[in-house]
Every structure is written in C-alpha cells, then in structure tokens.
Amino acid sequence: MNRTRLHWALIAGTAAAVGVGAALGTRAVTQLVDSTLPDARGIASFNRPGTITLLSSQGKIIQKLGPATREKIKPGAMPPLVQNAFIAAEDRRFFQHDGVDAWGIARAVVTNVRQGAVREGASTITQQLARIVFLSQDRTITRKLKEAALALKLERQLSKQQILEQYLNYVYLGSGAYGVSDAAWIYFSKTTDQLTVAEAALIAGLPPAPSIYSPLVNPDLARKQRALVLDRMAQSGAISRVEAERASASPLALKPATPKYFNSSAPYFTTWVAQELPKLVSPEQLEVGGIKVRTSLNLDWQIKARDVILKNAPFDTEGVMVSIEPGTGLVRVMVGGRNFYESQFNRATLALRSPGSTFKLFPYATAIDLGVKPETIVLDKKRCWNGYCPKNFGNKYYGKVSLANALKNSLNTVAVQLQDIVGFDAIIKTANKFEIGTQRPLGKYYPMAIGAYEQTVLDMAAAYAGVANRGVFVKPGPFEEIRGPEGNILWSRRVDGNRGRRALDSDVADAMNWMFQRVVTGGTGIAAKLDDRQVAGKTGTSEGARDLWFIGSIPQLTTAVWFGYDDNRETKSNSGEAAWTWKQFMLQIEAELPVQAFPPKPELNRPWRVPGKKKPKTTDKKAAYLGYEHEKESPEQVDAPAGSAFPATGMPFPPEFAPPAPVPSPRESQAPAASPQRNWMKPRIQERRWTR
Length: 692
Prior knowledge:
Strand content: 5-15%
Strand order of the largest sheet: 2-1-3-9-10
Structural class: alpha+beta
Helix content: 25-40%
C-alpha cells in the first residue's frame, strides 16, 4: 500500500511539475512573442498611411485628406443594431472565442467545400482589426500567423466591446467610406443611430468585397449580400424572421452624399497649405500619415469673408480677401476667388496684378526714411519725365501740397516726384525688405512708383502688415502647429516659426500709419472708415480700373481686398468698392478684437540724406541740417508742426543734394507687345502702354 501511494504521489508530482513547467513555458513563449508585437492599446490613435487632418486655429476640422475615417463613433455610442448586424455577418462566435475561432475555421471550410466557392470567411473580427491596423493585405502564411498572434494579444489587452467598436470605426466599406459612420452618411445621408434594419444589414455585408458589393457600384449584388446578412441576423436571434423578410423585400433607398470633411471648408486656403506643408515636414512623414495640422485660419471669419466678397463684388468680377495678423504673420482669412469649384486658380497667392496706388507705400516710406516729413511741401502739377507723363485721377492738381495730403488724395505726380528725388535703388531696397521684388525684380522705370509691376494680394497684404507692426515684417504663413501620428510636435510656430525682421524704423512706420489713417478719415479710403477705432489704409486702382484694391489695418489685423477680371478687362468701377467691402467684413468681426490705437504721429528729426549714402547714427549730432523755409500749403494745410528739412519740388537743390538723373522710359521696342490671346490666368508681368 505504501509503495502504491508513493507511486501515485510520484505520478501526481511529476504531472504537476510538467503542468507548471508547461504553463510557465507557455507564458514565457507568450511574453516573448508579445514583445515582438505592437502594443494593441495604441489602436485608438491609428491612422492610415497618407492621412492628414487640417484644423482651424480654433480646432475645427477644415478637411481630412487621404484614406481617413472622417467621423468616428465615440466609445459606448455604437448602436446595438449595427453591432448585431456585423457580428452576424462577420463573426457569429465573437463573444465566445479568444481572437482565433477554431470552430469558425472548420465551419467556413465545410461551407465553402459544400458550395464549391468561398462563401464564408474564417477570420474573426479581432483578426480583421489586427490586419487593418498592423498588417498588410498580403495573402501569405507568415501574415496569417502574425495576424493570429496579434489577435490573441488584442484579446488580452482590450475588452470585446473595445475591439468591436474600433473595428466598426476603421473597417473599409467601399466608395471612400472608412467606418460605419462614414458609410451611413455616404450611402444614406444618415447617422448610424438613424439606420433601419435593411440599411444596417446592407452596410454589414460590405467588408468581404467593399468595392464590389457597394450599392453605388453593383446594386444587385448589394441586395443579394444584404439578404444573406438579414438571414444570419434572423438565425442569431438579433431580429425576427418576419423583420428579415420585410427588410429583404424593401428597396435600397439610397441617398448618396459626399463624405464629411472630404471637401475643404476653405479650399483656396487649403491648396496653399498643401503647397507649404512639404517645406516643413519630410516626404517620409507625409507618407506615414496621421499628421494633424493646426492652421492659422479662423474658420468663422473665413465664412464671413467669402460671403462678403460674393455680396459686394462689383458686377461679376472676381474677388480676393486676405487677412494677416501683423505681429505673427498668421493668415487668418484667405478667399482666392468667387467659386473654387468653377476655378481652382488661387488669385490670392498666384495672380499677379497691378497694385496701383497701394505701391505708393514704398516711395513714401523711403522718402521719410531719408529725411522727408509728412508736412514737407511738394508741387503737384502736370509734369513729364523723359516722355512719361503721369496723371492724377480726374486730371485734378493741387499745386503746393503737403506730402501727407498728397498721399491722402493719392496724387500720382507726387509719387513719381518722390521716386525721382530719392532714386529707384532706394525704393527697390525698401520694397525688397518686405519681400516685394525679390522673386520678380522691379524695373527702374518711372511707372514703378504708381504700381506698374504686378504683385500678389498676399505679398502686398504682408507688406502692409509689416508697416502696421511698426516696421517689423513677418513672412506670412498658414501654420500654428504640426503634430505626428503619436501626437508628437513636428513643427511649432512658437519654436520654429519666423521671428520677423525690421524692414522700417519704427518712427518711419508710425509716420506711414498716421498718413494712412488720414487716407481713411478724409481721403480716397473714406468708405472703409470705422466709427469706433482707427483704420490705416490705402486704396489702389490700376489703369482703366482693371484692378480695385484696398488694404487696411487696425493694430491687430491687416486685410487686403481686390476685385478684377481674370482677363484684365476694365471693371467700370473704382477702389471705393474694395474699401466698402473691407468695412463690411470688419463690421462682422470687430467685436472679437479689442479697440486699440496706433502710436501717435512721431516727431521726425531726421536730416535729409543723399540717397545711397549710409544712414547717420542717431547719436551723430554733426549731421547737416538744410533748414529750408517751410512754405504754406495750398489749398489745405496739414495739421503738423511747421518746419521742413526738405526743399519743395521745383526749388533749386544744392549740388550735393541734387536729385538723381532720370532714367529714360523704355523704348517702344522694349515694351512687351500686347496679345489678344493672352492667358491672364498665367502669372507674369502684364503688358504696359508707355506714354511718350
């Protein structure tokens, strides 16, 4: 008996040791295999390759690019009807297996052999989720083994409900639908909780061959697949046999819709983003996808701006609006035309248009920087420069007029006189500091002073924003922050963004802003006047009113408005339309911007400097002072301190301060030939008629 007991004790001990060893060995093998597999808990942040989400500055979705799930169902919100339909169609023993269903595999083999075709799949929902997230679609033994191992790990790390919900959010369901929410919208224009039994069954029948069973592609096959799912739902008890028969006999009742966030809420802006994004992230990062881009766009303002442009565009002209935050360069609004789906040409960033009198910023700023004052008297009269004879609007001439009033009334002859006095090189240098003329050089011809060389609306808006920012120019940009698929920061404006550079001394910029305010309070830009705050702006009209401009600033925002035709026809309107449109936009958003004032008009004590010579240091008290007598202005006197360090035009210059020799206007053979077949959508310098 003792021997018998000892014998059985040895057997039991050996069996226990073997069992424990096997368990420990299995656990060790499992842990070893698990360590080579991805962490299943990262599924919630899964993104397919090439997906990009564009967000507004407030975090609203502007657009989702690539094969993205455009709308996910939140945990716990998946309708039971949809869950039951997919379980019946894809994995009837979902709640009984541990990720790999041996009974399901056997059943599928028997069913497919009996019917002589593949009628039933063996992959569980867990295996399908593992394949979607972690693996490719290759049909290999290695991939199937990895799929099974990953499915087992998923079951250990996630609950059944989590697995099911993630699968329903990511499974491809044809016609660009990723997830059941997208499918409900694309096929029926419904949310998932609005789906009927027939509709849920149709969607649940799509995973085996979504491109083939899509009701938008093969409605007859979709109907047959729906009937099969309804039969399985009845077998599982999810619905009654009567419900199944009634749903099977119902029409498809499709109501197709564009996927949510498929089209951009601001298409002109997002086309610009698409051009700029590769400059900040690598091709590999774009290919991996899962990128979230927080852009600079204020989506609410963008919608208001688009409506204002459509409502106020004179006749059937195209319209553009760009708003820039001066201190950061962030583009808050970009409307590139009337209708993106009729014309994808972005006139805000690509169209080269004559800036007209908005270009006068540069000769005036250059003159002030060299020692001219806003109260300096100049002579406004008809005059020619080597055959070039500019005219004022309405052929109106003021005689002796202050520089400030010349800008207020946008006198062309004065702008050209300033150019003649300070020289082409000095003006070009000033413009270049604002990145005007750096990509497309400015020619040294007299019409340059009044906008002969085309610029984009974005570039001109950025230059005026630099002046509003007290002379600090910040390159315009569309990005606040770019994050990778794991939420890691790839680029941040606060860390990596442009810090700006000084383009004008602050007192010069303050003087320009003071003069621009007078343009709005009583000059050509009066249509843009706001009752409760200061506005600094300038109108611009090209020859024949082909381009209508207004660029206006409050301290926190600079906005440019342009109207014109793509074929460069005359608009038969005036720049007051652009100024009025600017005001209509600002009236809708000004409540969001606290009232702020520009710095007051500065006391300018700059000695007149010969153009081209180095600027004397502010501490250099030996700089010469000409001390010319300040003449009284006619017909109106600018409110400014008396005294001028610069002679009125027409007075004799000392030899050392003589104006530069005039540059001859181009010969007829040098001027570009006009072409009636001109493609005005192609950016290039427009043809000009030179008056001799």
